[in-house]
Every structure is written in structure tokens, then in C-alpha cells.
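Quick one: co-fold with adenosine-5'-diphosphate.
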Amino acid sequence: MDAILVLNAGSSSLKFQIFAASGQELTRQIKGQVDGIGQRPRLRAFDAGRKPLVDLAFQKEEVPDLPSAIDKAGAWLQSLEGFHLMAIGHRVVHGGPDYAAPTVIDQPLLDKLATYAELAPLHQPNNLLPIRLAMGINPAVPQIACFDTAFHRHHPALADCYALPLALHQEGVRRYGFHGLSYEYVSERLRETFPDRAAGRVIIAHLGSGASMCALLNGQSMESTMGFTALDGLPMGTRPGQLDPGVVLHLIMQKGMPAEAVSKLLYHEAGLKGLSGISNDMRDLLESDDPRATFAIDHFVYRCALNIGALTAALGGLDALVFTAGIGENAPELRHRITDRAAWLGAKLDTAANDAGAPLISTPGSRISLHVIPTDEELMIARHTFRLIAPAH
Ligand code: ADP
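Sure, here it is.
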């Protein structure tokens, strides 16, 4: 069967999915990943019915890094029979100022995307690696880059700028925004399920280990909480979110911290992990009775509420609030607390629906509707890839 492979290569995991393409339909066939790279590497994959297809644990020396993880996953994928690979779709975190849509990859594009690595050091180099490897192994298979920034590229100029000299903006110091593939998918789902809401003023809260919010007007991104890099906005698992740049100056100039140490602090040691001193994982914090865990959760909820206020101002009001990603989809307590703080906007939570994780979690009398929509960035990538290589569809 004709198939599209979707790859999402991160620092500690390589996620892959295979979609069968038939007519206009894309159907997920396989979902897998190599996780625990360099720690406790494990290759696992499941078929569409969640039946395990492979489960292999490796010594950490066998899979110390992403290239070796790609090797292991690649060998297993190549052993599969019955798939004709039409194309590979990649999640690429940064498309810089130039790429506002998924793009077919060639060498010049790859070179250009490599220049954005400093804008997203956690993700971009990892995202590009499997593209290079696949180009070497099978250059005839088209590869498509789907950018996390693309969805926001048409946001208003007001939202694109920092109050810095314009020359910096022209050099690319802009408020790009991220999680675009998630927002695009969730907003399409909202349009399918609640079209009148999707046509209005919507905030989507993508609350996972990376967390951000996006303000949408009729499905278009108008504003988002992330900016030049994925450090800005909400507190995250290990990133602080919004921070006075004076803090960074203080760390470097007064405390004498090298830039690399500041970067490590901001990307890996801050956020829920830094604040609680316990864990970057919301589940651990929710289970803990340590006051530091409680405070970290309180802070997360507070910053979410503040940002809902800011994005509502960007939209001039609010019609719907949608929760997605790990925390947004799975933590009713967090949804409860965040929506309580949005009561001034007229948000009224249906607690039973919320506890059940229903698609609509507001009461009929709620002025804004509240939703839970599981995200599916990989399906979004597969759709884009399919559209680009088979434009007739
Ligand atoms: P990523 O940004 O890595 O894709 P996810 O969207 O998968 O992240 O979100 C991962 C986070 O979601 C975890 O770190 C955890 O904090 C949170 N999470 C997942 N399930 C639950 C749950 N049942 N309750 C609370 N938090 C959860």
C-alpha cells in the first residue's frame, strides 16, 4: 500500500508514524518511537489497534544518540513488508521568517534551515538530521518539512515585533510562535465539531512539557505566547516562560555565568522542575504533597490565567477556550483551576464533563465554550505531506 512516513526527531526520542494513503484518505497504520536515547533506549511500535509490533530494549551504549536511534528505527521500518513509501514528512520546529507553509526539501532549503539552529537549539539540529540521512539513503523519496512556526507567519505585524530597533526585526529577531502544527490540527477539529465557535475568537492552550497558547480569529493565528524562541510565554516542564531579560543580564554580568550555563538553566533546569525542585512532570507534582510542588502548580495555573487575559485582549473578547496536549488533555484538575480563573470571562465549567474529559466541558449557560481536543501533530504532517506530493488530492 502507498504510505507516508512521519518523523518527529527530538533530543531524547525519535517518534515515527506510518499512514496509508488511499484515495483521499490517510489511515494511521503504525505508531512508534525510540525513547530513552542515551539512557534506557527502547524501540516500540504498535499497529492501529494498539497491538504491539516490536518492543526492543537496548544498552545505552548501543543507542547513545539520535543517529543510532535513527539506525535502529530505520532498520525495523525497512524490514516491514507491504508498504510503498511515497514520501517522508518531517516536523521541523523553525521555518524562520521565510517559510509560512510546508515545503518540499532540497539541499538549498536544508542549508537554509540549518541556519535557524541557533533559534531552536533543542530541536532544529535533531529535526534536520533524519532528513540528511534519508536524502543520502534514498534521494528519490520526496521529503517535506512541516514547520511549527508556519501557522503564525501571517499573524499581524503588531504581534510579530519586539520594541527593538527595526534592524533587528529585519535580521530575523521576531516573535515567531511555535506549536503551529498542533494549533492547525486542533483548530481544524474545532471547525469540524463546533463550526460556529471556530469562526469566532478562540484561545487554544497547548499544555504539554512544552506549553503555549494561541489566539485565533476564524482559525487564523493572531497572537501567541511564544516568541523568538520556544522559551517565552507560559512556564513549562523545564523552561521558565516569560522572563525579564534583565534576569539574563544579571546572570551573565553580575554572577559571571557563561552563556552556555545560562542556556542550560533556561532550557533544562527552570520551569516546573526548577520551581518545584522535584520534577518537570505535572503528574509527579499532582501526586506530591510537598508544598514546593503545590506552589509550582499554583504558579503554572496563575501564568496560564494571566496569558488567557492577554490573548483575550488581543482578540477583543473570547468565544471559546480549547485545551490540548499532555496536561491539557489529561489533567482535569488543571483545566478546572484554569477555567475557574477565567470565570470573569463568563467561563462556567461542567465538572462532570471535565472529569470525563468530554469534548465540550462548559455548561450550557457558560458565556465562553470550553473544549478538550486531543492534538495530532503527526496526522497534520501526514496531511500536509500528502497534499504536497499528490496535489490532485
Ligand atoms: P510533549 O511536549 O513532550 O509532546 P506532551 O504533550 O506529551 O509533551 O505532555 C507531556 C506532559 O503532560 C507530561 O510531562 C506531564 O506533565 C503531562 N501529563 C501527561 N499525562 C498527564 C496526566 N494524566 N495528568 C497530568 N499531567 C499529565
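If it helps, The pocket of adenosine-5'-diphosphate is lined by residues 208-210, 237, 281-283, 286, 325-327, 330-331 (CB under 6 Å).
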